[in-house]
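JOB MANIFEST
job_type = single_chain_structure
chain_count = 1
residues = 354
[input]
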Amino acid sequence: MTAPNAWLVYALVAFGLASCSGGAPSGSAGTSTGARRGQGATLSAVRARGAVKCGITQGAGFATPDDSGRWRGFDVDFCRALAVALFNDSNKVQLVPYTQQQRFSGLQSGEVDLLVNGSSITSSRALERNFHFGPVYFYDGQGFLMGKASKVARAAQLDGATVCVQQGTTTELNLTDFARKNGITFKPVVMEDLRAAVGALAGGRCDAISQDGAGLATTRTMLRNPNDYVILPDRISKEPIAPVMRFGDDQWLEIVNWVFRAPIEAEEFGIGKANVATAVESTDPSLRRFLGLEPGITDGFGLNPKWTYNVIATVGNYGDIFERNLGPKTPLGMDRGLNKLWTEGGLMYSPPFR
């Protein structure tokens, strides 16, 4: 058979197979059915269970139970956003607390569907542990917490200091790198959990605690006299915080990606929990697509086309979530810094919903 004839036969066979397959129509029912057929093990388990299992790490502002036992916090709100997107119910989430040492084994074993607990993106975690990372939802960096009485103003003055770090983190490696770069030495003391580190700092067994900056703000609230302690201004590492998932389920990965981006996009549009109900009256085509009011943009993978609207109406935009849990009016009193929108000098940025 000549080459041109071979290509003709190939094209006819391909056309015939495509015709026999009876592809789904462009309507939402076809999209939903096809998406469910192709979903991987994690998304299938989530839907069969009727809830998202979210691994968290307890810490003020990020994940703590209130007096009634209901978990609240920055990380918790993003877990609840996933539950809203999938089930339109923020309570369809099972929150599983882990220590920093336990978190990755819990994810690898399938005990949870993802981690939303202050885990930083690193190459080793992605390439050696076979983890996917979603979008960065918090930009941070490693710093130091110590007593004001020490009179230390900068990290480079900590030569010879005893520094408490948490087990199961990259903190000790970052300390070593900083010390070598600056020609100083540290004496790291590895603690199993944060409470042990706080006790060691208060008892004088450590000169300082080193961890991510947001963690230091949380840790400071755990001390008996928080005002006697100061967080040094230096940041010795980059810590881009993102949700973590196992390899093997592309649909689950994409759902997590876009749900985490939605609050950022909502803030860019200037809509939040307080005004999303009136935003549906907008004639802005980009906003209408984002809110699921125009077909074909937000209705993939069997999701309700208006899942973005439901998420913002329930948990708010990124600014709502930050201010409610971490901002100046909370015990942590954090400034947004790099977590401001890109239009305001920060790094927060969402790809377009279109």
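[summary]
The chain has two domains: 32-139+241-344, 142-237.
The two ends are 46 Å apart (CA to CA).
exit_status = 0
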